[in-house]
């Protein structure tokens, strides 16, 4: 040893990746999750804790010395589980599903265990190549145009991101630069973003991050008469008004399965309008895109061949577990021109050969997770036929729920059902005829809000709401992996029981 070296490195006495300890603790965690899923129905679906509850339960300072996995799992059971709203419960009908599966969980485990950072091809070739392959698999399952795939060799392809918001930031930024490169950066305040008033807020949030003025966001009005789908005539009128003011139409976010009511925009007709103004058109099918692998639902994305980009969230309804947003673009070169950075420390022969995909140039962040491993497991473990049956089963259960709602004259369907979301409300006709105050929409909204809170506070099922055309709507979204028809029947009985009690109290308070 050189005399210049003064200190010999110390040997670690604790190995955070000891193989045998990993095996022991891994079994403990799997056993914990197994028991959690076996007993998940006993927990309140929506967490019943008060804000700040965990501060009162956990120590103020982190431990100085290691604690056992047994102690930690005990604390998870005692302190964390009570603060969880159980998205995987079969009685979870809120928002949209965030489905998982054995393959989804184990795929996440494998990806975390291998723990690669696949920002470019050379950093881990399999991570990049598997992603390209799986994205083409999914494109074929969806019957997307070949122009959206790598196999066509014309510049299209797919990438896995975390969420739709991430995807929209990347895509809107790309659309922005495509136009500004022609008209000059000084004109950014002239660029306008379009969507319907049902478009997810992430679109306008992403546009704001991309530097588009909030004054240039257009939420074009939709109506109940058209099931809250964006109408081409309304879009054209909004665009025409902006063009007359000297503004530049930049980007349209067309929706297939909106968050509020699962509305489906006529994307082919909207695309025709947008293309007259050379706009970028993105199809956000975060929820409903999943079911487009079923031929009978594929028509909702007819016209996709003329769009610029398309995305759906496999973590919503495809058993993939959060997070996995699948995004396709027709021309990846415009994406990479905007998002590519090549510092010296990332340069390598593979990239310079231009024969590989460097996914860092397809997204905002540099680092990225090995999501394709999870999706590969899901598709291989279940196969296309089972995945179709899984999705169809939820649609059938939603249709069954809808039938029960229709049979009870105290309720009405607010919007025709799309896919596995039922939008309904309490509309007690018999009560209305005797008490004029219920004719006011505001009173009906208060009644439905009271019903929803009563149901959710009980904890046996969990639903959420939306507001469309001033109507407070109850949303019943079927999609949990564990949900079976008897759970849907139970949920309906629960809704009816709470309705009976609330209406009885109302009638009593009026002295009837």
Automatic annotation (TrEMBL):
GO terms for biological process: amino acid metabolic process; carboxylic acid metabolic process. GO terms for molecular function: carboxy-lyase activity; pyridoxal phosphate binding. GO terms for cellular component: cytoplasm. PROSITE patterns: DDC_GAD_HDC_YDC. Its cofactor is pyridoxal 5'-phosphate. Coiled coil: none annotated. Signal peptide: none annotated. The modification N6-(pyridoxal phosphate)lysine is found at residue 316. SUPFAM superfamilies: PLP-dependent transferases (SSF53383). Pfam families: Pyridoxal_deC. Keywords: Decarboxylase, Lyase, Pyridoxal phosphate. Belongs to the group II decarboxylase family. This is Aromatic amino acid decarboxylase TyDC2. It comes from Lophophora williamsii. The lineage of its organism: Eukaryota, Viridiplantae, Streptophyta, Embryophyta, Tracheophyta.
